[in-house]
Amino acid sequence: MLLQALYGIELQMGESLPERLFFGVTVHSQLMKAGRVIDLRAERILIIGNKTVFHEYIQSLSRIGNLLEKKIIVVYLGGFPGPDKRFFLRQIQDKFDKNGLQIEVQFWGDIDWGGFQIFRHLQKSVFPQLRPYRMDKTTFHQHLDWAETFTADYQVKLEQLLENTDNS
Asked: Residue 80: which region, alpha, beta or left (left: phi > 0; alpha: psi -120 to 50)?
């Protein structure tokens, strides 16, 4: 999992990390399990499911201007979050809850069954306030050239996901 802290996340992992990590850092699952989030100074968290999109987003933020004014933590998830990643992400949520702070948390994943599945899982298991980012109908239509063929079987899969979301 890559973590981009544009506005301050401090991790206690037995070694010193810079306070602000402008180009990302890979945090191995074992370190996530052993490490502890000791401080957060952000107003927004954006979790991105696609590595290329993660890097392009970070580069676009650095071109905009003063990164510190963004007050954002950007996390590259790298697929479905296993127990160690969920543990680490829960620490972030718990830190905000403990401090009585509301944090905007968004997920930017693929606009497909897998992306929606990851979104739903994160919302149920880590961030109840999670909202989708650029996973809407307008974004889909803007990138229709990248879309795959929509089959009847795929429609059933999406409908089942929607039914499970509504009933759980």
From this structure: beta
DSSP string, 48-70: ES-HHHHHHHHHHHHHHS-GGGG
User: In angstroms, rounded to a whole number, what is the distance separating the alpha carbons of residues 76 and 53?
Assistant: 9
Residue pLDDT, tens place only, 79-135: 899 888 898 899 889 988 988 888 899 999 999 999 999 999 999 999 999 999 999
Q: Which tens digits make up the pLDDT trace of 66-83?
A: 455 567 888 888 889 988
Q: Report strand pairing: 2-5 vs 36-40.
A: unpaired
Contact 42, 93 (CB under 8 A): no
Strands 72-76 and 44-48: parallel
